[in-house]
Design a protein that fits this description.
- The complex is a heterodimer of chains A (324) and B (358).
- In chain A, 33% of the residues lie in helices and 15% in strands.
- Chain A is built from eight helices and eight strands, in the order ααααααβααβββββββ.
- Chain A is elongated, with a radius of gyration of 26 Å.
- Chain B has 358 residues and is mainly α.
- Helices cover 65% and strands 1% of the residues of chain B.
- In chain B, a hairpin with a 2-residue loop joins strand 1 and strand 2.
- In chain B, helix 3 runs antiparallel to helix 7, helix 6 runs parallel beside helix 13 and helix 14 runs antiparallel to helix 16.
- The longest helix of chain B has 32 residues.
- The chains are: A alpha+beta (324), B mainly alpha (358).
- At the A-B interface, helix 1, helix 3, helix 4, helix 5 and helix 6 of A face helix 1, helix 6, helix 11 and helix 13 of B.
Chain lengths: 324, 358
C-alpha cells in the first residue's frame, strides 16, 4: 500500500497531467485554452512532468506523497482519503471532455462587460495588433478595378480641429442601410478606395477583411484609421443587441479576446449601424459588409460600422486573439 | 439568478485553462523547492539573512526583485525555506511581496496602463507601476513584522512547526521505518546523480502536495466565471465601495500577477486609480487559491485572519491614494485634474508607428 501512494499513484498523476497538456498541445487544442506565451510554458511543463513521473516510478527511495504524517493533504489519514486526494487532483482531467470553449465564450459573452472604447485597449493587445499588421503581406493581388473605384483626394480635417489626417479620405456618403432580413437594398456607393491599403488582407471581392479589434484600434490611431475609414470592409462577429442604443438603430458585433487563458477572455465590440435592427439571436455569428466610420461621441472617438449587408455565417471555431 | 450564469461545459473549460496556466509556475516553484531541499542546508539558510529581525524582513521583501516568482510558485518555495529554518517573518515578507515587486510584474503593469488614463484620471504608467510595487512591498513588510511577533505554535501547521524548530536539515519525507536514515545523512551519502534524483522526487512530492489545493482554489475561481460583471458597475462611482469591490473581485478571480494588470486596464477602466490599485495589490497577496495554498504552511484560522487584516490594510492605503486630487476620477463640472481619455490622439508613438504601405 505504501508503494501505491508513495510511488505509483504519484507517478500516474504526474503522467496524466503531463500527458493531458501534451495531448492538448499536440492536437492544437491548447491554443483555445492559453495565450501564446503561456502555451510555451505549458508545453515545457508537460515535458518536465512526464520526466518527473519517470523518475518517481523508477527510483526506489521512499520519498513520496501521502504516506506519512508530514503530508500536507488534509485527507491523508486514511487510505480512502488518500485515494480521494489523488482523485481531486485528477478531477479536472476527468472533466476535460465535458469542457467546451464555445460554452465558456457564451458564459463570458453574457457575464462580462464588452470593451468598446479603443482607448482602454491594453498595450499587450496593441503589440499583438502591431505584430499582426507587420505580418500582413504586401503583395496581395490588386482588387478588381470595377469593384474598387479610385480613392478621393485627402482633404478632410478632423471634426475637432486637428490637422488633416495623413491619408485621410472623404467620409462616405449616406449609405442605404440593410433591412431587417439582412438583404442588400442598394448597390455600393463609390466611396471606396484602393491605395494605400493594399497591405490589408482582402476578400476575393476586394473587401478589406477587418476584425473588431482592428476597428477599435483604428478609432484611436490616426494612421490606421485612415486605412479603414470610408473603405468597404467585411467583418465577422457575434451579434449582441445594444440596450443603450438611443439614436440610430445600432447593435454590437462582438469577438472574444484572451489575455492569458480562456477563463479571462472578454468580449470586445464595435457598434454596427443599420436602418432597422436585424432579427438575429444573441450570439449568432454574422458577416457584415459595410463602411467603418469613426465619429466623436461623448468626447470619445468610437468605431461605428455602417452596414450595407448582414448575413448569418458559420461560427469561427478557432476564435484566437490577433497576432497569435 | 440574474447575476450568475454558468454551466458544466463552461466550468470545465475554465478550470482546465486556469490549471494549464498555473501548473508551469507551480512546477517551477516545486523544482526550486526540490533543489533547495537537497542542495541548500539549514545552516546556509540561517546564514543568508541578516541577524536583525527588521532588516531581515526588509531584505526578504526585496528578494522578490532578485528571485522573481509568481504567487503559486512562491508558496512552495517558502514552505521549503521555513522547513529549513527561515524565520517566519522573512518567509511572509517574501511570499507576499515577490508576486508584486518582481520585475516581470513591474513591466506588465507599466505596459498595461500605458494609455496614461485610469478611471478618467490622468495616470502616468510608471506612477501606477511604482504605486503598485511600493504598496505591495509596504503591506508585505508590515504584515511580516506583525506576524514575526506571534508565537509559531499559534500560526504554523504542526508539521511545519516541527520543521521550523529544527536546526538540522529537514528534507523530503522519509517514509521508511524507525530505522530509516535521516534525510541529511541520506543526502550526505548520496552521489551527485543520486542527489538529482532526490531533488526531483522532492519536487514531485511538493508539486502533488500543492496541486491538490491549487485544484480546489482554481475550481472555486472557475465558479466565479459565472458572475455578471455588470452587477458591480454601479459601485464604480463610490470611492470606497469601488475599492473593496475590486479587491473582493481580485480574490475570487485568482489571476496571475504577471497578467492581472492587463485585465484590470481593460475591464475596470471605469473604476478609479485607487480601486484598480486595490485589485492589483490585494489579488496577488490573497485569493481563493492562495487561501488553500497558505493553509499548507499556516493554520487555517490564521490564514483567515491574515486575509482580513491584509484586506483592511490594503483598503485603507488605497483609500489614502484615492484622496490625492490628481488621481481622482472626474466629477461633472468639477475642478478635478481629471481628463478625458485621449480619444483623438494617436496611441502608437511616433517612434514606433504601425507599419504602413511601403
Amino acid at each position: 500500500m505504501k508503494s501505491l501512494f508513495g510511488r505509483w499513484l504519484p507517478a500516474l498523476t504526474l503522467t496524466l497531467w503531463g500527458g493531458a497538456i501534451a495531448l492538448y498541445a499536440f492536437d492544437q487544442r491548447i491554443e483555445q485554452v492559453l495565450a501564446y506565451e503561456f502555451k510555451v510554458y505549458a508545453i515545457i511543463a508537460s515535458v518536465l512532468l512526464l520526466g518527473c513521473s519517470i523518475v518517481v516510478a523508477a527510483a526506489k527511495t521512499d520519498a513520496s506523497c501521502c504516506v506519512d504524517s508530514a503530508c500536507g493533504h488534509g485527507l491523508s489519514r486514511s487510505n480512502s482519503g488518500r485515494i480521494l486526494t489523488f482523485a481531486i487532483i485528477l478531477l479536472p482531467i476527468a472533466l476535460a471532455p465535458f469542457g467546451s470553449k464555445a460554452a465558456l465564450n457564451q458564459v463570458l459573452f453574457k457575464n462580462r462587460i464588452a470593451t468598446e472604447d479603443g482607448s482602454n485597449l491594453s498595450s499587450k493587445l496593441k503589440e499583438q495588433l502591431e505584430k499582426k499588421f507587420a505580418a500582413r503581406p504586401n503583395n496581395l493581388p490588386a482588387p478588381a478595378a470595377n469593384s474598387l473605384p479610385p480613392e478621393p483626394a485627402p482633404n478632410v480635417t478632423d471634426p475637432v480641429g486637428l490637422p488633416p489626417l495623413p491619408g485621410a479620405v472623404q467620409p462616405p456618403p449616406a449609405l442605404p442601410l440593410p433591412t431587417a432580413d439582412g438583404s442588400t437594398p442598394a448597390p455600393m456607393p463609390a466611396a471606396v478606395s484602393q491605395a494605400p491599403t493594399d497591405w490589408l488582407v482582402r476578400t476575393p471581392d476586394g473587401l478589406i477583411v477587418a476584425e473588431v479589434i482592428d476597428l477599435l484600434y483604428a478609432a484611436q490611431d490616426n494612421t490606421l484609421r485612415a486605412d479603414f475609414e470610408g473603405k468597404r470592409v467585411q467583418l465577422i462577429g457575434q451579434y449582441m443587441p445594444d440596450p443603450a442604443n438611443t439614436g440610430p438603430s445600432r447593435f454590437k458585433a462582438v469577438r472574444m479576446f484572451m489575455t492569458c487563458c480562456a477563463a479571462d477572455a472578454r468580449p470586445i465590440a464595435t457598434l454596427v449601424e443599420v436602418e432597422k435592427t436585424p432579427d438575429f439571436k444573441e450570439m449568432d455569428w454574422i458577416k457584415i459588409t459595410g463602411v467603418p466610420t469613426f465619429p466623436l461621441e461623448k468626447g470619445r472617438r468610437v468605431s461605428v460600422l455602417k452596414a450595407e449587408k448582414i448575413e448569418k455565417t458559420e461560427a469561427i471555431v478557432d476564435d484566437m486573439p490577433p497576432g497569435q | 439568478m440574474t447575476w450568475f450564469y454558468l454551466n458544466l461545459e463552461a466550468f470545465s473549460f475554465a478550470l482546465l485553462s486556469i490549471l494549464f496556466e498555473g501548473i508551469p509556475f507551480l512546477l517551477l516553484g516545486s523544482l526550486i523547492s526540490g533543489i533547495v531541499d537537497v542542495f541548500v542546508s539549514s545552516e546556509r539558510v540561517s546564514k543568508m539573512m541578516p541577524k536583525g529581525p527588521i532588516s531581515s524582513v526588509f531584505l526578504a521583501g526585496f528578494m522578490g526583485m532578485i528571485f522573481p516568482i509568481c504567487e503559486c510558485g512562491s508558496v512552495v518555495v517558502v514552505r521549503r525555506f521555513v522547513r529549513k529554518g527561515l524565520p517566519v517573518g522573512c518567509a511572509i515578507a517574501y511570499m507576499l511581496a515577490a508576486p508584486i515587486v518582481s520585475p516581470i510584474v513591474a513591466i506588465s503593469t507599466y505596459k498595461a496602463f500605458s494609455t496614461g488614463v485610469v478611471g478618467g484620471a490622468p495616470m502616468e504608467p510608471w506612477v501606477m507601476m511604482l504605486l503598485r510595487m511600493g504598496m505591495g512591498f509596504t503591506v508585505a513588510v508590515i504584515v511580516a513584522l506583525v506576524v514575526q511577533k506571534l508565537p509559531h505554535r499559534r500560526i504554523l501547521q504542526p508539521s511545519m512547526l516541527e520543521a521550523a524548530n529544527e536546526t538540522k536539515r529537514t528534507g523530503l519525507r522519509i517514509a521508511g521505518g524507525a530505522d530509516a536514515p535521516d534525510f541529511a545523512t541520506l543526502v550526505a551519502q548520496a552521489s551527485p546523480r543520486r542527489k538529482i534524483v532526490l531533488a526531483i522526487q522532492s519536487a514531485a512530492s511538493d508539486f502533488l502536495d500543492v496541486a491538490f489545493f491549487f485544484v480546489i482554489g482554481a475550481g472555486l475561481a472557475s465558479l466565479f466565471v459565472g458572475f455578471k460583471e455588470a452587477a458591480i458597475l454601479p459601485l464604480a462611482s463610490s470611492p470606497f465601495l469601488s475599492i473593496v469591490t475590486l479587491m473582493g473581485l481580485a480574490s475570487i478571480l485568482c489571476l496571475c500577477s504577471t497578467t492581472d494588470a492587463f485585465v484590470a486596464a481593460n475591464a475596470f477602466a471605469k473604476f478609479s486609480v485607487a480601486a484598480n490599485l486595490g485589485f492589483l495589490v490585494f489579488g496577488p497577496m490573497f485569493d481563493l487559491k492562495l487561501f488553500w495554498l497558505y493553509g499548507m504552511i499556516f493554520k487555517r484560522r490564521f490564514v483567515f485572519i491574515l486575509g482580513l487584516g491584509m484586506f483592511a490594510l490594503v483598503a485603507f492605503l488605497c483609500w489614502q491614494v484615492g484622496t490625492v486630487d490628481a488621481w481622482k476620477p472626474p466629477t461633472p463640472g468639477g475642478a478635478s485634474a481629471a481628463v478625458e481619455a485621449p480619444a483623438s490622439q494617436p496611441l502608437a508613438s511616433p517612434e514606433t508607428p504601425l507599419p504602413s504601405n511601403p
